[in-house]
């Protein structure tokens, strides 16, 4: 590989990183501009809608449908109103008002294996490939599955940093032990795969 192409690869990686950062910043700004905040797990979505202090549940008009969500103060324009990006289980979805200043909405996803790109279809989307599931949920997994997931996460991080994966590290370690045990052998031209 010539130096020119190696340099090109490095530059494109840096370009990718800065494009990635720019995309994340744009996404964060778009999300911050929404009249609510939201977070999700694979199985549910939680939304917090700020309302004027002193608001009571009777002052609110909240509609939660299979594919629709509307929140507003009675007699005023809705704060949010539209079609949900995916279907929900209406009977398991709830809303409450907290401290008379925020409406908390809990939506149970119908498909519990899918990340949502947005809450309402007409709102800006997030890049679901960048979602990092909360590590606390690793504790819900059995030991073997958890170890496998942690290994995959480690390998993914190593690859992103251009470092060897756990399997490659094991091979390198085994080779070093073998070299130490056989100092009479010459490994200077050995190709390891």
UniProtKB/TrEMBL annotation:
A Pfam family hit: CS
Keyword line: Cytoplasm
GO annotation (BP), single: protein folding
Origin: domain of life: Eukaryota
Positions of the UniProt region annotated as Disordered: 1-29
Subcellular location: Cytoplasm
Keyword Cytoplasm annotated: yes
Domain CS: from-to ranges: 31-120
Cellular component, GO annotation: cytoplasm
Nucleotide-binding recorded as keyword: no
Function: Required for nuclear movement. May interact between microtubules and nuclei and/or may be involved in the generation of force used to move nuclei during interphase.
Protein name: Nuclear movement protein nudC
Upper lineage: Eukaryota, Fungi, Dikarya, Basidiomycota, Agaricomycotina
